[in-house]
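Per your request, structure below.
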């Protein structure tokens, strides 16, 4: 997973690039620095297309984009946009073309795991967005004279020049069930909500939902067998999309139904030659002094 960081000074002060996220970008560390803003990208390549990327990407209109993610519907999107061959484009180039065509309406069309930053200098406007499930992280902090954002919390805290209080609502969320999606451990630092984008202009922050579940949409079959076939098809498609990599893939394996199903389906897909990945490795956890923690029998 690549990392991104940015800072925008509302008062026009110049911005210095930082390298606090260097460990997250073993393959490349690049930046776009303007008069009052800096966007940094720390690349960790996992696909052949990502190795051809140039980020932050500056579009023909002058917008600046940083993208951390995997775009699952590359073929469908390139056809809809009017691009000739999806293999000729990187994920971020397809995202940029979708943005140029549909603006914020493009976010709902981006299927996959992703976090996205778009800086529009002509309007002095910043957009921060996440995929509809929220697999990739993106945090932001808005001060009186600046806004900073990052896919990792550390630089927002270290570079803030102040201390943060522990968010008691976040702690209560962990103790009771799970914290609300917009919360972080620190008061003053928020997470971009899944299926939402944050729009920042003139110091004003607005959050907009771009996608939602359709509870009224149902799938009706005549037999259990049809449901089973549909489920297996969806599972295979989902796993295959996560096998889009030119490096070995590491899967967590507890030996339970979920992880075992995913690993077995992945093995089958790789063995058939239907995915770019050529190797699946697994990692499992156990602790001898915790009787309920030994998963080795299930893994075996």
């Amino acid at each position: 997973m690549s990392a991104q960081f940015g800072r925008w000074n509302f008062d026009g002060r110049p911005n210095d690039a930082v390298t606090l996220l260097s460990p997250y970008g073993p393959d490349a560390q690049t930046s776009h620095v303007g008069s009052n803003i800096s966007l940094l990208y720390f690349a960790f390549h996992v696909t052949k297309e990502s190795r051809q990327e140039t980020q932050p990407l500056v579009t023909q209109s002058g917008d600046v984009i940083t993208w951390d993610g995997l775009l699952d519907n590359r073929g469908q999107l390139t056809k809809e946009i009017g691009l000739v061959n999806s293999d000729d484009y990187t994920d971020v180039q397809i995202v940029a073309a979708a943005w140029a065509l549909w603006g914020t309406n493009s976010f709902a069309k981006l299927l996959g795991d992703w976090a996205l930053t778009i800086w529009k200098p002509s309007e002095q406007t910043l957009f921060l967005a996440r995929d509809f499930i929220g697999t990739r992280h993106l945090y932001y902090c808005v001060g009186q004279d600046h806004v900073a954002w990052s896919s990792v919390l550390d630089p927002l805290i270290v570079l803030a020049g102040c201390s943060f209080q522990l968010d008691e609502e976040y702690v209560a969320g962990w103790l009771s069930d799970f914290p609300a999606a917009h919360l972080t451990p620190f008061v003053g630092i928020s997470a971009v909500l899944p299926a939402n984008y944050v729009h920042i202009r003139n110091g004003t922050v607005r959050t907009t939902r771009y996608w939602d579940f359709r509870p009224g949409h149902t799938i009706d079959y005549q037999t259990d067998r049809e449901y089973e076939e549909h489920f297996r098809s969806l599972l295979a498609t989902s796993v295959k999309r996560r096998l889009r990599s030119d490096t070995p893939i590491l899967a967590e394996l507890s030996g339970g139904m979920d992880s075992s199903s995913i690993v077995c389906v992945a093995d089958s897909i790789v063995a058939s030659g239907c995915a770019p990945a050529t190797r699946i490795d697994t990692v499992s956890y156990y602790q001898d002094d915790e009787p309920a923690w030994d998963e080795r029998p299930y893994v075996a």
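Helices lie at 74-81, 91-102, 154-158, 168-176, 224-242, 257-271, 296-299.

Regards,
D.
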